[in-house]
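Quick note —
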Amino acid sequence: MTQVFLNYRTDDEPFGVAMLDQELSRRFGSDAVFLASKSIPPGSDWEPQMYDAVAKSTAVLVVMGRHWRNAENRARLDEPADHVRREIRHALDLDKQVIPVRLGVPRLSIADLPEALQALAGKQDIEVRFRSARIDVDRLAAKLAELIPALRAPTRGATPSARNVVQDSRVNTLVQGESIRISGGLHGGPAPR
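Predicted structure written out below.
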């Protein structure tokens, strides 16, 4: 059932990866999103399951945070045995839809990558920024639903991701939403004096 595989480094923005898993799983169902720590049962031989999941996936999201290409991780990418590199290379070899997901970091250039992964620099990416994460993840999910028809079916229990809450005089900013429920009075325009 896996449609989307999350490729990531455990020491690079783990909360960003967890947020992507939660939001995409909420929208498409947990079985549609492969995250190693969630999807591989404890005590299992994880390596064959990891590469099998890449093969079964339609899209592989290469999640890159601020440490993804630091000196230590760049050196790891140069190593043929590096699992992040192997997962990406496996996805490229299988002609999967490989999508770089940048967590608030600049785009990759060919110089940032070892020769075996340079195709990644030419892939259209998507950025998820801290201040607009909900909008960016919604945009990513919409793109995935376009690319993967099986993800278009509504998931039971899925709820719209954006909400506007007004309580007393405290107001959230409405970023995006399908409907607004108003209880009590409504004033549009500058605050009355």
